[in-house]
What we know:
With 130 residues, the protein is mostly helical. Helix content is 78%, strand content 0%. It has one domain. It has five helices and no strands. Helix 2 (33-44) crosses helix 5 (94-128) and helix 3 (47-72) runs antiparallel to helix 5. The longest helix has 35 residues, at 94-128. It starts with 9 loop residues before the first helix and ends with a helix.
Amino acid sequence: MEVVTRAHPxxxxxxxxxxxxxxxTLTGFWQLIFGAGLLAGILMKRPLASFMVGLLxxxxxxxLPLVIASRYYPLEDVATLLLDIIGLPSSLTFLPYAxxxxxxxxxxxLGALLGAYVYTLVEEIRMEIP
Length: 130
């Protein structure tokens, strides 16, 4: 029995990845977003496309709630405190926000890249076995 190995299009995997990353961030274990990227890579099956979907999905799912929360909570005070501890001027309050979004985006994107390459490797091994 032959399994259909069709790559899913980006416009179906991107919302799935974004929602999954958002739900995993709500658990409190942000490291689990790597798994959402892994799933995106397995579904996309193309390394560059899955990397881009992971990058965009991770940044939107992490950045949008951060922007919404900054409207209702004093996150700017926390960012200023962090910048004071580091020794940077308090006018760079966007820096901690941007840093967390970049870390989330890269984590998801690397998971997606790994998922695509692991899928490719498993398919090559599966084709060699009679």
